[in-house]
């Protein structure tokens, strides 16, 4: 379908004649040419850059500009703490940094790049020449806001192929008006941008979040045709009475980023069914660029707990021995980077090991049954329990401590310290892991429950917590 | 405790910040702690401490400490 000159995402985006951007802050329309800064003055060979982004027009301009460059880009939230930013930069020594929150960065000289009526600061240190594997284009953090140095390596081909597969099943049309209501440093948010940009829709940026009245005013004014949300966004939509009203412009809504509880999913299904809105429940991982599978809306009612079927060109298998869901396809990443040296290589991974346990029904629909690794999501925030446990043990200098998760809502800390300062610990966990204090619960045990092999019995901990 | 004290305590409990950091001008999303997730916890806490049920359409008006007090007047919680 596409000739060779279309072998990357930005070329396809450039070919989308109808593509427009609306910035709600300035209430102006922009075309792709207006979005690109002039990088001629930068004169850098392919280098590593850090881009700190939000969902504003300027962030979108920055991202598209550098997507249209040979550089490899680490996409990060601009709202993470300065200290976390500095730690990451010390680990990876990026040659350039764009961060609107900092006027000066030690060891970097500050330059300007200009574009259509805007100028931004570019912080450069040309003595940092990171060795980059030629495949690496985008690097994303799996945790988003915690400043972990663990990055997912993605190629031009990964992002292009995933966007094309998404366009195969979502009813995206050139007349669509798509709000960018998820951050760009998050694989799901980025996939919304990519799939819409190559389809030539109108993309709306600079939006406040859905808890702002203005979001709903803009929805009406610009006639948004879709909304994307993680489970918590759906819970908020329900709480703020989304389903009590109708939105004639909405064509479809999508949900990914974790498991939405079955009752709420069913309520949204009923609402969408009554209002001629297609409801797409989807599954994926950053390691698969974003998307792995989706439930066709017509099947959702009968397959309400399913993660659906694989996207086009993707294949799901289940490991005979472990029951783990394995995914293969052109959107599977090239391995993790934990430190700068890892950027020099690329692993060809045939089977992405998702860490999720799954099975398949007679119609070919997949279902998640549990997790192989000790990873939970607390309000969408992917948390490695062993990592938190190690952090707390070293911070508190105590070994009698165990962490577990309940229903993607609660981080439960079981401990044997009668004098534990819960409030102080909550603050520390929020600062480092962005887990809200109300989502952290403590349970004191005189002795932590163990199983026969003398390992911590996490199930017993949860049961005893729920018993009280 | 006055209603102002009760509300202040609800903010301190949920946001886990010092009471001294909370004044009329404190706005939703102006600090890391007052994010959307804590906003929903805060609404629940306010419902619980004042023993009220906040209508879904009113949630969008709890945009600052001051506006929260204004929005609560509808529920006969006065300041």
Automatic annotation (TrEMBL), chain A:
SUPFAM superfamilies tied to this protein:
Acetyl-CoA synthetase-like
Query: What InterPro entries does this protein map onto?
Result: AMP-dep_synth/lig_dom, ANL_N_sf
Quote the Gene3D superfamilies the UniProt record gives: N-terminal domain of ligase-like
Q: Which GO terms fall under molecular function for this chain's record?
A: CoA-ligase activity
Residue stretches making up the AMP-dependent synthetase/ligase domain: 131-336
The protein's matches in Pfam families, at most eight in alphabetical order, are given as: AMP-binding
What is the designated name of this protein?
AMP-binding protein
UniProtKB/TrEMBL annotation, chain B:
Q: Which Gene3D superfamilies match?
A: ACP-like (1.10.1200.10)
Superkingdom assignment: Bacteria
Name this protein carries in UniProt = Acyl carrier protein
